[in-house]
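Dear H.,

Thanks for agreeing to be a second pair of eyes. The structure we're designing against is below in token form, covering all 227 positions.
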């Protein structure tokens, strides 16, 4: 199972704290994918050749690592967001054995010039401090990135976002030094406004820039291929 499949399963079917262990993109190593409230976090499990390293722990075999997960450890990354490992995603799930019969089967095109579709989820969530437009004050907000939308809320428990930013309209995401007294500052540039944010750590800022920039580049690639 790759990263996209893991994220799709956890976002669609799982609750917060559900996790699965899967092969990493690095051959011979593993990754842990965990469902958070509105996103999925992926943690790398390093294999040194003799043992597996996860966080501050070392495990001689995968079975020992799985046993450790059963103790429901609390884990977190550079963003500072913590998640409790509650339950593994089951490998086998029973489903009804129902199928529909094909009653219509017609060809509408030759298969050329098909519209490219975006399938990536690319989720992330966490707190950032954002500069207001009118009063130019810095406000602590909860941000959720899913697909091409970046939503922000007054607090994590709110159900309705203050605003939803369409990243299809975003032209740039990069580190910024406009405000000399702010560390870990970056900006999102739109044709109609530039948004400024700063993160709690440099690692968290880098991760936000990385996932949003990847999203922008991927969207441009799809748009180019559709032309």
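And this is the sequence the design step returned. I haven't edited it by hand at all.
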């Amino acid at each position: 199972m790759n990263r996209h499949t893991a994220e799709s399963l956890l976002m669609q079917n799982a609750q917060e704290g559900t996790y699965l262990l899967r092969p990493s993109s690095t051959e011979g190593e593993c990754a842990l994918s965990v469902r958070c409230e509105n996103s999925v976090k992926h943690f790398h499990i390093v294999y040194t050749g003799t043992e597996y390293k996860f966080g501050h722990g070392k495990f001689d075999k995968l079975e020992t690592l799985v046993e450790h997960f059963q103790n429901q450890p609390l884990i977190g990354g550079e963003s500072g967001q913590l998640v409790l490992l509650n339950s593994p995603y089951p490998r086998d799930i029973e489903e009804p054995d129902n199928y529909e019969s094909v009653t219509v089967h017609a060809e509408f095109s030759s298969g050329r010039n098909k519209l490219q579709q975006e399938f990536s989820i690319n989720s992330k969530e966490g707190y950032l401090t954002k500069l207001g437009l009118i009063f130019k004050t810095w406000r602590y907000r909860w941000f959720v990135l899913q697909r091409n939308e970046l939503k922000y809320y007054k607090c994590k428990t709110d159900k309705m976002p203050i605003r939803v930013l369409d990243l299809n309209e975003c032209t740039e995401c990069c580190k910024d030094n406009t405000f000399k007294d702010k560390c870990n500052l970056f900006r999102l540039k739109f044709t109609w406004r530039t948004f400024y944010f700063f993160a709690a750590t440099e690692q968290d800022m880098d991760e936000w820039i990385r996932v949003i920039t990847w999203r922008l580049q991927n969207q441009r690639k799809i748009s180019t291929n559709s032309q």
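Two observations from my side: Helices lie at 3-13, 62-69, 202-226. The chain has a mean pLDDT of 86.

Warmly,
E.
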